[in-house]
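so the lab meeting is tmrw and i was supposed to have these ready like two days ago... anyway. pasting both below. for each one the top line is the aa sequence and the line under it is the structure tokens. i havent really looked at them closely yet so no promises
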Amino acid sequence: MSIRFIGANWKMNLTLQEAKLLYSELEDAINNELSCDVVVFIPQPFLGCFESTDNIQIAAQNFHAPELSGAFTGETSLSQLKSLNINTVLVGHSERRQQFNESDELVMLKAITAVQQGFKIVLCCGEPLEVRRKGEEAVLKFLKRQLSELSHWDKESLDQVIVAYEPIWAIGTGSIPSIIEIINIHTFLRSTFRTPIIYGGSCDASNSEQIFSEDSVAGGLIGGGMAAWNNRSRATGTFGETGLPFEAKTSMLKVHAGERVLNPQETADYNKSGPDAGQTQYMMEYNQTAKQLLEATKATNELLNKQVAIAIATEKNTKKTSKVVDKVGPSIV
């Protein structure tokens, strides 16, 4: 299966200025070179400040349902999202389930409401650590229960769904299931619910190429880079455009791609650059991670295309050989 969807969940991170910078860098990195959908789940307050382009689709991280309007202070309706030309929404992320008490029932109610209103949805599922410890059979049973309502949906509705498998224990930890586990779970979900399955949960530039090369993986939902940005902001005690204090800049800076640590020369250059330039440098490093991820995706697609071309060529050669054998067969005998 070729990669068909890459999603970036920016969560509750970035100021508007930072978001615009990152969005611009991401669009430059893509530059019409990817055949898959690239979707960015923008922080809710900024949705009206961005427009989808040929390269990137803007999507929402959350919405209220089933009501489309009414006395729901602080909520965002699907009708309001539609008026902003948003047509894709994230549903059932583990952070919504755990921190905002969204039950399986509420998640599926939101999912069907969004689909009925003409939205495409990325529907998240994933098991906690205590379920994983019980073994693969327990994990599959847990996931099937989370998504059970999908088995009652018609094909037209399912065509609007992408399922994101994000094991809760892996999100933001740097740990992921083994490739065999990912293959088994994706294959099970795909055959059970007949939707594309993408992977999330500590998926980054260091492991995406291997994950995306598997036939059962239709893409990825990436959020770890934004967690790294947020952790950096908290560690320095600064947010937004206030810059990074000199004292904080003297420490080693982890680069999200592979958790690499700046070498002494890089650190010295960073410390000389000043607060504003220092923050810009970190943004550039994060953007480089995004570029590496996109490059890995392109490389995977190129490999798959080559494999398909080889298979077609092999089939043609086999047919030609068969015809030759048919012709010369009697004389050989």
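ok protien two:
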Amino acid sequence: MSEGVAQPNNVDQLWNVVDESNQLKNDGKLIEFIRANSTSEDLLYSKKDNCNILLYSVLNEKYAVVDTLIQLFARKAFGFSIKNATSILDRLKEEKKKEEEKKNKLAAGEEVEDGIIDVVKLLSEELAVSTEVIKQVEECGVYDGLFNESYQKHGIGITLYVNGDVYCGEYDSHKKHGKGLYYNYQKKYY
């Protein structure tokens, strides 16, 4: 870290750096802070006003913070409450692809080393997560946020879609509405 930048040692200092940051450009203090603390999950999972750091930054138009977090962490920057949700999704896709290849070989009369396996059970054991969580991620992605009385996404929240894309921002009766950020996982843009 360069001289003149205070060495922050807790999450509260992170929020101070974010609040002090310029909305449209990075003054250097922010990126130095985040890089110095990038190994700490506290950085991504800490909350203020019911928001993690990325969602808070989107809603408060702290574009330098948003840009820095996405550049450094990609999808991890979204800080889901199910901390390994993105890992579950990636592993599901990987294992499903392997299983599809095995099925194709069997259909073509070829032999496969090991038979067809229960991917959900395998990942549940491997990642120490319930099979229900694995199935939820596989079938409909993950939503971490507020709901209305009809149990629709409403207010602020973050959604990890089955295709790997992520949206964080405001919802109104289950629809994206207001300030938000959509991250395309395949094309790596937002």
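from a quick look at the 2nd one: Confidence is low (pLDDT under 50) at residues 1-8. The first strand starts at residue 47 and ends at 48. will dig more after coffe
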